[in-house]
Amino acid sequence: PGPGYQPPTDVTAKFTVLSEGTRGPLAQAWMSWAGVSSPNPQIFALGVKELWEVKAPLDAVIHTLGWPFPRDVFGGSFCYPMEPNLVAIGLVVGLDYRQANLDVHVLLQRLKLHPLFRPYLEGGEMVEWGAKTIPEGGYYALPKRRHGNGALVVGDSAGFVEVASLKGIHYAMFSGMHAARAIFDALKKGDTSAAGLAAYDRAVDGSVIVKDLRARRNMRVVFQKAGFYLGGIQAALMTATGGAFPGGHIHSEKDADVPRAAGVPADTFVPDGKLTFGKVDAVFKAGNATRDDIPSHLVVGPDIPPEVAEMYQHLCPAGVYERQGDKLVVNAPNCVDCKATDVIGPRWTPREGGSGPRYRKM
Hints:
Blueprint: E1 16-18, H1 25-34, E2 44-53, E3 62-64, E4 75-83, E5 86-94, H2 104-111, H3 118-121, E6 125-135, E7 147-148, E8 151-153, H4 169-189, H5 194-205, H6 208-215, H7 219-241, H8 279-285, E9 298-299, H9 306-315, E10 321-324, E11 327-330, H10 340-344, E12 347-348
C-alpha cells in the first residue's frame, strides 16, 4: 500500500483481529495506514512440505542442516511422523539467499533421494503438498505497535516466530489468547479505542513471546551478515549467553534488497514421477481449487528482464512464473498463496474467494 492508501471502511465489527499469516493484505494495509514501523525490516523464509503415506513407520523426529543447500544459504530440513503411516517431509530456506536460480522445490526433491529419507518414502505415495513463507526477522522486526482503534495484530502477521526453537504456532496461540482477554476487558468497559486495547501490547511484551524473541534477538540476522558457518558460531554464542553476545542491535536488510548472482547454470533435475515430482504435479496435490480463467491477483511490472524472469521461475515453488524466451509468463491459477514473490518480486493482492489450495492435513 502506498502513502495515500485508505483502508476499507466497510469493516463494521467493534474489534478486528488481523491474523492473516505472512504478509496479509489487511495487516500490511493497516500498519501502513497507521504508520507502524519496526527497527528492522521483516525477513522471510520459504517452506515447502509434502505428506506421504508410507509403508515403513517413522519413529523419530529428524532435523538436518547442510546438503542439499549451498553453503551460503540459511535453511534446514525436517521429517516428522504424523500418524503410523503418515510422514511429513520438507525444508525451509531463507529468502535472503544469493543465487538467483536457487529452487526450493527442486531442493526438496533432491532431499528425498538421500539414504536417510529414501527408505521411508520409497514404495509410498505423496498425498499432499504445500508451501508458505515464514517471518524470521525476530525481535527487532516486530511492529512497534500491534494494536489500534478496534484492531489487533496476532501471530505471523505480527512476526511472532522464533527461528532457533522452531516456535510459531505456539506464539500465534498465545497472542490470540492475549488478544481475546484485551477485547473482553475493552468490551466490558465499552472502549474500542487504541487506549482501550493497549493492554494487549503490554501483555505480549511481558509474555514468553517477547521474552524468547529478545533472548535470540540477533540470531537470524547474523546468518544474513556472516554466512552459514560464521553465523552458526555466533548464533551458538548467542544461545549460550541468552543474547548478551554480541549484544546491541544488528540491522538487517530486506530480502528484496539482497544482491543475487545471475548466470549460474540452471538445475537440470528431472523428476521420476514416483519419488520426485514436478511443480505442476505438486500443485495438484495441494487440492488447488482455483478456476483456470480467474483474473490474475499478481501485480507484475511491464518490463521484466530475462534474468529476473528466470529468478521468479525458480523462486516460485508452484510454477506460477515461467520464462519463455526473454519474456515472463504468469500462470496465476497455479498460485498456492505462499507469498514468496510478494516478498521479493511481483506483489500479491487478494483474489477471488474460494480459490487457492484446499489443504486437508497440511
